[in-house]
UniProtKB/TrEMBL annotation:
InterPro entries to which the protein is assigned, alphabetical: HATPase_C_sf, HATPase_dom, His_kinase_dom, Sig_transdc_His_kin-like_C
Domain Histidine kinase: 14-227
Protein name in UniProt: histidine kinase
Catalysis performed (reactions): ATP + protein L-histidine = ADP + protein N-phospho-L-histidine
EC code: 2.7.13.3
Keywords: ATP-binding, Nucleotide-binding, Phosphoprotein
Pfam families named in the record: HATPase_c
Taxonomic classification: Bacteria, Pseudomonadati, Pseudomonadota, Gammaproteobacteria, Alteromonadales
Length: 227
C-alpha cells in the first residue's frame, strides 16, 4: 500500500496548533491552582513566573502559526465589531497573576462606547505580546489607551521602563527584516505585529505599528493604528 509523502510544513502547523491548545489548558490549570492554594511570597513569585513563561510560549506558537498561514496565503481574518474597553480588560485579566506579583499599576484610558472592526484573536494576541514585554521591562506602571485619530483607531501601550533601544527607533518597523527584529528585545513579535496590522485594510488604507519613546509614562510607546 503506497502512501503520499507528508508535507513537513503542514505537519508542523498542525503540531503547533495542538501544542497551543495544550498550553491554553495548562494556563487555565495554573490560574485555578493559584487561586486555591495559600501562597508564600516565594511560591507566589514562582507561580507568576511559571504563568508568564507559558503565556510567552503560547504567544510564540500563535505567532508562528499565523506566520505560516500567511506564507501559504491562508491567513484567515474574522473581522467583527469589538469594544475596546472589553478587549483591554481581557488582556489585564489574562496577565493578572504576573501583574500582581510584580506590583504593577495597569491603567486603561478608553471611552466605554468606543468600538471598531478587527480580527479579535489576531489583535488580542498582538497586543498581549506587547503587553507581556511591557510588563517585563516596566518599573511600576503600564497604560493602555485607545482613541480615534484621523478617522482611524489608535491603540497605545506605554510603560515607564527604559524605552526601546536606539537601533529599533532609527528605522521604520515595517522596513525591519525578521532577522533584525529577532535580535531586538521583543523578537519576532514586532514582525508579527506589523504583519497583522498590515493585513487589516479598509478603503485602500492599511494598519500599521510605530515605536517611540516618551509618552505619558516616559518609557516605551507602542502604537497600533487600524483603518
Amino acid at each position: 500500500m503506497s502512501h503520499s509523502p507528508l508535507d513537513f510544513s503542514t505537519v508542523l502547523a498542525a503540531s503547533m496548533h495542538d501544542m497551543k491548545n495544550s498550553l491554553c489548558l495548562l494556563l487555565q490549570s495554573i490560574d485555578t491552582i493559584s487561586t486555591e492554594l495559600e501562597h508564600t511570597p516565594k511560591t507566589r513569585a514562582e507561580f507568576a513566573q511559571f504563568h508568564y513563561e507559558i503565556a510567552r510560549l503560547n504567544s510564540n506558537l500563535l505567532q508562528l502559526l499565523a506566520l505560516y498561514r500567511n506564507s501559504q496565503a491562508t491567513l484567515p481574518l474574522n473581522i467583527e465589531e469589538h469594544y475596546l474597553d472589553e478587549l483591554f480588560e481581557e488582556l489585564i485579566t489574562k496577565n493578572e497573576l504576573y501583574i500582581q506579583n510584580k506590583v504593577l499599576h495597569c491603567s486603561i484610558e478608553v471611552d466605554d462606547e468606543l468600538c471598531w472592526f478587527f480580527d479579535h484573536d489576531l489583535i488580542s494576541n498582538l497586543l498581549n505580546d506587547i503587553l507581556v514585554n511591557a510588563m517585563r521591562y516596566s518599573k511600576s506602571a503600564i497604560r493602555l489607551s485607545a482613541s480615534i485619530k484621523d478617522n482611524m483607531l489608535q491603540i497605545q501601550i506605554m510603560d515607564d521602563g527604559d524605552g526601546y533601544p536606539d537601533e529599533m527607533l532609527e528605522k521604520a518597523t515595517d522596513e525591519m527584516s525578521p532577522a533584525t527584529l529577532a535580535k531586538s528585545r521583543t523578537g519576532l513579535g514586532l514582525y508579527f505585529a506589523s504583519l497583522i496590522a498590515n493585513a487589516h485594510t479598509n478603503k485602500n488604507q492599511h494598519g500599521q505599528i510605530t515605536l517611540t519613546n516618551g509618552g505619558q509614562l516616559n518609557g516605551s510607546v507602542f502604537t497600533l493604528t487600524l483603518p
